[in-house]
Write a structure and sequence with these properties.
Layout lengths: L2 H25 L8 E5 L3 H7 L4 H21 L4 E8 L7 H24 L2 E6 L7 H14 L5 E9 L1 H17 L10 H6 L11 E4 L18 E4 L9 H12 L13
Parallel strand pairs: 1-2, 1-5, 2-4, 3-4, 5-6
Helix pairs in contact: 1-8, 2-3, 3-4, 4-5
Length: 266
């Protein structure tokens, strides 16, 4: 196929994606959008290996997907987006892959901070950031400082994050307050625990998007996902774009959320 043919096919594909996006947007009820969407960005390595590339290429492509989902979340005025970037378990990966992922995050912070700021996105990095190297910690500080005025969307980037450790840290903080007399044991309830999690002050996720066809939480937001609606798709994260995100939102709006109650009319 010649160059003209390749360009023509690309334009046709882009036009179809635009049509699909417009159709899906027309099906959305703006008053019923989730307040908080959580995403486990999975399948980068598999995406690359299927195409004969190193796993690192998949991680690079996954950044493009994150960018599009963040942009669309801001456009739709979804208040909170949480993305699982690097878990505490990911330290078990090969050292060269870990180094690449950390450098990729630093690169993301440097290149994306101004656009995030322009779009009203406030970045919060959640996790045990004190366990990261100085250059990564500095990138986090710069990214959070640059975007702290954002009022459209809060983007939680989970880096060196594990939900069990998050709960342990909350328990430790609550225990210290009990020992110091600032908190009575009988006053500890769900609200107190939530207030000591990394996501303090934010609503729990209404929707969890799980790409790559996996049916597990992978130690992500275990407390916060108690009543979250799940959307599982076989699409690998690097192929997950605006259309796929809109499909997830449309699917979410078909659900009837009962929080342990009965379906209406029963």
């Amino acid at each position: 196929m010649g160059l003209k043919g390749i360009v023509s096919r690309r334009r046709i594909a882009e036009a179809k994606m635009t049509r699909d996006e417009d159709v899906l947007k027309s099906r959305l009820d703006p008053s019923r959008l989730p307040r908080h969407v959580a995403v486990i960005m999975d399948g980068n390595g598999r995406w690359a290996l299927k195409r004969g590339f190193p796993r690192t290429v998949g991680h690079q492509k996954g950044v493009d997907s994150l960018r599009e989902v963040v942009r669309l979340s801001a456009e739709l005025n979804i208040p909170v987006l949480s993305a699982y970037a690097f878990s505490t378990e990911n330290w078990r990966r090969p050292p060269e892959e870990i180094t690449f992922l950390m450098d990729l995050f630093v690169d993301y912070a440097g290149k994306e901070s101004e656009e995030l700021k322009r779009n009203g996105v406030k970045v919060r990095v959640i996790g045990r950031v004190e366990g990261l190297s100085p250059h990564v910690s500095e990138a986090i500080r710069m990214l959070e400082e640059t975007t702290r005025g954002g009022r459209v969307l809060v983007l939680n980037l989970a880096v060196n994050y594990g939900a069990r450790w998050e709960i342990v840290d909350a328990v430790k903080a609550i225990t210290e307050k009990v020992w110091s007399g600032k908190l009575k044991p009988e006053d500890i309830d769900e609200t107190v625990v939530s207030d000591h999690l990394y996501t303090s002050g934010l609503p729990d996720p209404d929707l969890l998007i799980r790409p790559a066809g996996e049916f597990r939480l992978s130690n992500f937001l275990l407390w916060q996902l108690a009543y979250t609606e799940f959307y599982v798709t076989p699409v690998l994260w690097p192929d997950f774009g605006r259309v796929e995100f809109l499909q997830a939102l449309v699917h979410y709006q078909r659900r009837e959320r009962r929080y342990g109650g009965l379906k209406r009319g029963l």
